[in-house]
Amino acid sequence: MTEAVPAKPVSMSWGQRLLALAFCAAVLALLAFSLRPRPVPPIGVQTAAARQGAITRKVTAAGKLQAATEVKLSSNLSGDLLDLTVHEGDRVKKGQYLGRIDSRRYAAQVRQQEAARASAAADLGLEEVQVRKLEAELARVRRLAGSGNASQAELERAESDVAAERARAQAARQRIAQAEAALAEARHFLDLTTLYAPIDGIVTSRQKQVGERVRGSDFSEDVIVIVATLSSMEAKVEVGEHEVVYLHEGDQAEVEIDAFPDRRWPAQVVEIAKNATIKNAGTEAEVTTFPVRLALTAPVAGALPGMSCQAGISTETHEKAVVVPIQAVTVRTEKQLRGPAERRDERPVAPAPGARARREPTQKVVFVVERGVARARRVETGLASESEIEILDGVKPGETVVEGPYKVLARELEDGKPVKDAVPGEGGKKS
């Protein structure tokens, strides 16, 4: 039986040992490198420089065009419409004949009052003749009384007869005046059966047709045609209750009409309503607005009442203000502004049973870029225009601020995160 020969231990040279140690060190180094925390990749943002300059507060509102002067022509009389010579779009001059209402009834009333006046005049003639007769009789009785041939009683009776007849003559004169007043009224009603243009303008609406019945009333108008002066137009817009407090009569404005895109017309605030218009009252969708009238100071060829428009009203200007793009201002809660370390140390507080969860207060912030890092700055804002906003405190002129994209500003960006200017096409397009 053959005995096993023990294996000799393998001996490594110093070179092999150094090579093995180097290999182990490389593996450990590679493992340590792979396990070390990686730096946060910078977020692509759009930036802008805060500038110092003028900014004007602008209040925007939407509404409709309307004629500066619009007259609704109706009738004070009831009757059938026998003639109407104008149509929508016709240009008319003040005093121009437009149409007429059946006048037979009112012409008859004129003839009736003319007859009444003639009858009263005839009665006055008779009374005047009688007065002259009694005055002559009085003169005769006075002569007889002077010669003693008539008694005092006869004289007094003659005087009283003259006085009574004079009174009856005066009553006849009053009846004539009454008849003349009634005749004037009847003639006025007859004149009202003919319709004339009240102003120079354009017929914007014809609401009656020949043969229809016109209702005359002092309490509710029955409109026949509407005449408007389209050479001067107004915009009637609705301004929210939080913005109307900044408006004043005489403020300058610009009006853009939907029918004429990319053009704006100068205007001026001429009236701010004191009564609110409330829509959806008593619901969550309740909206309170105030009507505001703007007079367009330049003619708008082709504009018609009822066209939709938008107005930008300039209310106040600050000349030397620190201004940033309006989208650069965002909001964060106090918890978000305290940073990750402080948030980890916070202990959540459970609300009391039945109590409503309290909403965290928010702060206006602007993210300022400092050496490639976004820093959240609490800011106070002032006036706002259509595209820019005034910073009263928190940002200095020349500092670089983040203005987009909206998603990054609203949700992702935090204090201390690295940022870089985004390249268009890689998430850097403006929202």
TrEMBL record:
The keyword Transferase does not apply. Residues 124-189 form a coiled coil. Residues 334-348 have a biased composition (Basic and acidic residues). Keywords: Coiled coil. Residues 71-222 form the Multidrug resistance protein MdtA-like barrel-sandwich hybrid domain. The keyword Coiled coil applies. Residues 334-360 are annotated as: Disordered. Pfam families: BSH_RND. Belongs to the membrane fusion protein (MFP) (TC 8.A.1) family. This is RND transporter.
